[in-house]
Fold this sequence. Notes:
Layout: E1 2-12, E2 15-34, E3 38-40, E4 47-49, E5 52-73, E6 76-79
Antiparallel strand pairs: 1-2, 2-5, 3-4, 5-6
Amino acid sequence: MDYELGYRNQVSRRMSVDVTTFLSNYADLRTTEPGASFFTFNPAPPHLVLPETWGNLARARNLGAELSGTCVSAGAKIPI
């Protein structure tokens, strides 16, 4: 599930400000799960087997904020 909240304000004819916050929650992300390792002689040559299976066991959270502004001075647009 994702959430985002933003605000924009034109402070004056020449200046504006943007503020945004966001939050994302993720579930059932792809994982690899290790199995029990074992040594085998077949097929040759002798070797160690390290089995892995796919799973959906991971979770994650992402959050942050952004701040930006613009100032126009004598016809030139200047990002802040």
